[in-house]
Amino acid sequence: MRFTSLVVELIRARPRLVVWLVVLVQAAIWLILPMLLYRSPPGDVATVLAFGREYQVGTWLGPPLAFWLADIAFRAAGNHIFGVYLLAQVCAVVTFWIYYQLARAIVGGQQAVLAVLLSMTVVAFSSPGVEFGPLVLARPLWALLLLHSWQLIGQNRRNAWFAWSIEAGLLLLTTPAALGLLLLLAGFVVATARGRRVLMSLDPLYALLVIAVLVLPYLIWLLRADALAMPPWPAISDLGARALQWGWLLAGLVLAMSAIVLLAILNSGWFARNAGEAPIIYRPPVDPLARQFVYFFALAPALLGSLIAGIFNRDHVVGGAGVALLMSGLVVIVASGDLIHLRRQRLLRTVWAAAVAAPAVAVIVTTLVLPWTGAAEVPTSLPAKAIAQFFGDNFERRTNQRLRAVAGDPQLAGFIAMSAGRPHLLLDATPERTPWLSVAKFSETGGVVVWRASDTSGTPPPDIAQRFPGLVPEVPRVFEWMVNGRQPLLRVGWAIVRPKAQ
Predict the structure, then answer these.
(1) Torsion of CA 130, 131, 135, 140, to 10 degrees
(2) Residue finishing a domain among 312, 341, 366
(3) H or E element, residue 492
(4) 473 DSSP assignment
(5) Of 150-164, 337-351, 390-404, which gets the smallest average pLDDT?
(6) Torsion angle of alpha carbons 104, 110, 114, 117, nearest 10°?
(7) Taking every annotated instance into account, which residue ranges of this chain make up the domain Glycosyltransferase RgtA/B/C/D-like (predicted)?
(8) Helices vs strands, H then E, count in the chain
(9) What percent of the chain is modeled with pLDDT above 70?
(10) What is the rounded distance in angstroms from the CA atom of residue 171 to the CA atom of residue 215?
(11) Is the Cβ–Cβ distance between 49 and 71 less than 8 Å?
């Protein structure tokens, strides 16, 4: 007798409900977990907020849209990091919902659910999704572009041009990798007969006009900043090391989707007993062009993104792993055939749940256990709120003025820049990267300079002392970690640069 679980019946009868349930549960996990365990924002979130606070048209970090949205979310939450975490999870929910719409248009609603479930196990969509920035914002925009591109090419829906142009413009305002992604789309369109027919109208010209209007301010900034130059090509002697870097990046992508590979193997017909009794998820035949579309955009962003990153010695895939692996679940479903047998259902559910929960467990173990096993520093355990409040209050008491700027150690200064007064961040080691503030102007308006202190005297590092001559260090301030464990307490050296008027 064939046994069909409730989960399979829900996939067959209510596919949208299943998608909403699993996506919202995952978003809730990665919204609650950082609020409970993170005492400082992960990754470069503090820097993103510091740059977003200035509302520059462009910076050395790239286009401005992600930085602006981060600052808006932070202010809307009352200068609380919760707003940024919520924005990151909104991006995740939108990404998977649009991804489901794209998969449903290609393989039908039931198998589209399986594509979403598989893609949710990719590591890039778990803890890295909390680190809101250009790489996270690019995911929903890329999903929207793929959806409307398929509507234009495969379904001949001309009304999708306007949305496509808006999304392309916003992607160009989000990540420097947008141009390469758009070139991939253009290459696929030109290489297919149905794609070339889509171009035989005035709609693409109107779309280009909309894109040009959206990106014109950023393009003007690029020209004025002379930032359109290509990065230097590697020397011949470095090609071996760059090829090795490419290999490591590809290996990282494969490792990130290892749960998909494991689930596919466990569901295969090898050594299966009573294979005929397994429930079946059916789909209508897939359009050959849709098959090419899925294969191309599952492989090209990952291969080319890792290759370019390897050539130019980047530490991550161009465009981000979330963009490169977005189609990984759908490509497995398309390759599996019109009938997908769900064998070993209990084992599949267990492995899938473990793959989704494993990053959360890793975060909990890293935060609570790692401090007791060694002296390694957990970046998200720094008491960012206490650091910001202490230095902001001390500057105001000493000078009777609100803290307007902070410099020194970039990580600590970024935390202080998140305080209620939102002081400007000065990267004094590379002041050209923070053009809104210079060392000379910092000396006039006053501020706080911070650094990691190695002793109780609080002597500033030689490079900081050279950039700020006459700096008088205060007694270092000691802060406790979230879990102290075997780590030494965090000792922060600091000094106040008084405003010139005083």
Answers:
(1) 30
(2) 366
(3) strand 490-497
(4) B
(5) 337-351
(6) 80
(7) 63-221
(8) 22, 7
(9) 97
(10) 10
(11) yes
